[in-house]
Design goal:
Blueprint (H helix, E strand, L loop, with lengths): L9 E4 L4 E4 L5 E2 L1 H15 L6 H16 L5
Antiparallel strand pairs: 1-2, 2-3
Length: 71
Amino acid sequence: MKCPECAGEMRFDRNLHMYVCTRCGLALTSEDRDKILLEQRSKVYSDIDSEEERKRRRKDYLKWWLSDKKE
């Protein structure tokens, strides 16, 4: 995971039980990290809000998965 502040690498510190950025020192709990990941994912998929688009994407994926996958 990248740090939300500086894009540095986040590593889990076993002593602190937190994720700590190796660049800026930002520390996040597992809950905070999960919230940030969900927010990032929702931003990525915000343009795919309509139900029809999701159904189409699932159908296309299934079609690809069942094919020879040479594309």
